[in-house]
Amino acid sequence: MKILPLQMFNPYNQNSQQQNAYIQKSCVKKSAPPPLMYNTMVLRDTGYNSLLLNKNNPVFRGALEKSALSLAKQIPLDDRLADAFSFMKHGDLIITGKNIKDSQKAMMESLGKLKNVIKRAFFIEDDNFNGTLGFTKNALNETEVINANPGRLFLTTDGKEYYLDAHDSYYVINGDSLKYNGSILNIKQEPKTNLSMHRHIYAKAFDFQKEADEMIEKQNKKSLMQIFQEKKPAHKVMFSDVAGQDEIVNELKESILYPLRMPRAYENMDLTHGFILTGPPGTGKTYIANALRNEAGMKGRYLNGLELESKWVGESEKGWRDLFDEAVSNQPYLIFIDEFDAVARARGGSDQFGDKVVNQILTLMTDIDDNKHDVFVLAATNHFDALDPAIIRSGRFGKHLHFKLPDLDATRKIFDIHSRNKPLSEDLSKDAITQKMFDLKASGADIKRLISDAYMKGYRRAGILEKLDKNALSDADLDNFRILDEDFDSAIQAFAEGRTKRKPIGFNQK
User: Fold this and answer.
1) Which residues, in sequence order, are CB contacts of 348 under 8 Å at separation 6+?
2) What are phi and psi of 304, to 5 degrees?
3) Contact 289/340 with Cβ under 8 angstroms?
4) For 352-401, how does the pLDDT look when each residue is reduced to its tens digit (9 = 90+)?
5) Cis peptide upstream of residue 423 (ω within 30 degrees of 0)
6) CB-based contact 137:81 (threshold 8 Å)
7) Domain 239-402's class?
8) Can you name the CATH fold of 408-501?
9) Calpha distance 35→427 (Å, rounded)
10) Category of 187 on φ-ψ map: left (φ > 0), alpha (ψ -120 to 50) or beta
11) Model's pTM, two decimal places?
């Protein structure tokens, strides 16, 4: 690699006329250059072309020599930006600030104003401007400024002054001026002197063209696929989809849903904010919480006690505080905690960590109750007796809702809900099938599973799976397919056999 000294000069130096004269003459004929006004002596790699961003706009990437950067800062920021505007195009982002780290952080706060993918970014460092600004080209080829600062940016145009709030944006034109925190920046159409040969000094460049193009192509492909793909809207679970738990639905309506819909009717009433849901697995505790959230239009979080116990080890109290702070900030809010006994066990043993968790939950629930926040907690457990007595008293989790296995009528309703839009045979023996499910004491979750199992067994019987394996399945095969009695009989038999094979875990196994 051949290394040569790079002669650099400042076009804004008062003694630069002789230098400029040499540049002009060199365009006509070769002549010996006059002595140059050296600001520095750096090394140049004659193979620098591999570092060029493109042929028209030679802006070097990578770290800049401090001496070269010092030279660049002698050029007014107005002129450096004017030169950058001359090669800026749609998809480019020009940032100016005191240092790249703080400027990057400031721009991250203004991401919402970037309406297109960043393909190229240029950072212009300036010690004298007390803030961070971003510049882009919009779809109309207008230059827009982004106020990436926490305070107002003042814009003067045609003698009138306007302001841009923090992280706001607006287009600028030649002759406008921007003022922030005592610094003034003038928008110019072109610099005082041609700076095209100095771009590699005054700007750091970052090229994301390849990554951006790949991302755009991927997104466009996804969008086109969705245009021609008929997509059914996702069904939101509502109270009308809940069967067999009418008393619990009414309790949740009266205690949570109605107070949210008409607060005035409940303003003098002390509401319960914590509910314990008990009962066998699969009876709809999570399902009904989802329905309540959709009916009330609440935000919410679904958590598992066992997962929280391991996830928040060492910082459990902080984790619970953060959770409730989030809930209070986003009222109305529903927190659903499954396997609550994992984090709310009775205190007094050797588990000091668990005792702290219970104390924290008690404190947080008391705060919610005292401040009458629209935050509600549904906590599900299959081990009610293991909960701490203070947890289940009034003012914390004062209402206890017990979920039962569905009776015969509820079994039929649950079957109808989960078989909705399924290709059932027109002469399917629904009464006989649901009677068998009821006799097996099937829960709501069991009924849903049995319908899915019958669906799959019907596929196997009708040869659908075999045709799929051979890539020979047609639309007519699917249109003609129906789930028959024998498919449900087969699914129910397998379910019953699976139950008889289950053995208790522990020393009583035989």
Assistant:
1) 355
2) -120, 125
3) no
4) 555 778 888 888 888 998 888 999 999 999 888 888 888 888 778 889 99
5) no
6) no
7) alpha beta
8) Helicase, Ruva Protein; domain 3 (1.10.8)
9) 102
10) beta
11) 0.52
